[in-house]
Design a protein that fits this description.
This protein is an alpha+beta fold. 46% of the residues lie in helices and 14% in strands. Helix 1 crosses helix 10. The longest helix is centred in the C-terminal third of the chain and has 21 residues. It is elongated, with a radius of gyration of 21 Å.
């Protein structure tokens, strides 16, 4: 089943039933303690249930184990913000993690298209590779593909929304490596190409293991808000996978035309 968190009707009944059944088993004193919280914001809901349903509590491990098992046969509708020479690259290649060989190949292709001279191109690649190695210096950190759950996370007021990845060819790594120290090299990467959001489908099983419970906590919080407080809680999350996805998984390409400057 394909789950789109914007359309709650797509959430499988088995997931809702697991969550609500656990709520119904809570002792009255715990229910009273939860309901005693004043709820004005989404974060208030999470704080109210954290002691009982926090995703990293040993008390909630059996509960999340059941939820993960129930979700792993389903797929999610997800979004990935980017900027490339052309949207045709996604239709041809699908979505790939930022593994260095693939990432650097696409960046070199872009630099050639822009028309950088050999010296500038070598300097850009030197600085970007240095920044890449810094980011991935942690031994356990692997190449990844980041995503978010709905278009409402674009242009979020008060914080850097997911649209920041539409700023330049090369994404945040190129921005960190070049924007402040070499603005003359960064500007062409920012001004060239097409910014867009990729809507795609992905098995829940392909979410990195350490993020699965965090995502499911959003589902739990949504149902808790309704069950305990009659409060509207939209499911939203950002996360990552370590898998590539073929072009067959692409559902839609959404142009992003606003100016982005982080």
């Amino acid at each position: 089943m394909l789950i789109d968190v914007v359309d709650l009707r797509t959430i499988p009944n088995e997931i809702e039933n697991i969550i609500l059944a656990d709520f119904s088993k809570l002792p009255k004193e715990k229910v009273d303690k939860i309901k005693n919280n004043n709820i004005c914001y989404k974060n208030d809901v999470r704080c109210a249930i954290e002691d009982y349903y926090g995703p990293f509590s040993y008390l909630s491990k059996p509960f999340y184990k059941r939820l993960v098992f129930g979700m792993e046969s389903h797929e999610l509708v997800l979004y990935h913000a980017t900027k490339m020479l052309s949207k045709s690259q996604v239709f041809a290649q699908g979505l790939k993690t930022n593994e260095w060989k693939a990432y650097s190949s696409l960046l070199i292709e872009s630099l050639d298209s822009i028309g950088f001279d050999v010296q500038s191109k070598c300097e850009i690649m030197r600085l970007v590779e240095k920044e890449y190695k810094r980011k991935y210096s942690v031994v356990s950190r692997k190449a990844q593909l980041c995503f978010f759950s709905d278009m409402g996370q674009i242009d979020q007021e008060g914080s850097a929304g997911c649209e920041q990845f539409c700023e330049s060819i090369g994404g945040e790594i190129a921005r960190w490596a070049l924007k402040d120290s070499h603005p003359e090299l960064y500007a062409p990467l920012k001004n060239k190409g097409e910014a867009f959001v990729v809507k795609f489908r992905m098995p829940f099983a392909d979410v990195v293991d350490f993020e699965k419970e965090t995502i499911l906590y959003q589902f739990v919080s949504h149902y808790a808000a309704k069950y305990f407080f009659d409060f509207k809680y939209d499911i939203q999350f950002t996360s990552m996978t370590e898998f590539d996805f073929p072009k067959e998984n692409i559902l839609e390409l959404i142009p992003y035309t606003k100016e982005v400057d982080y």
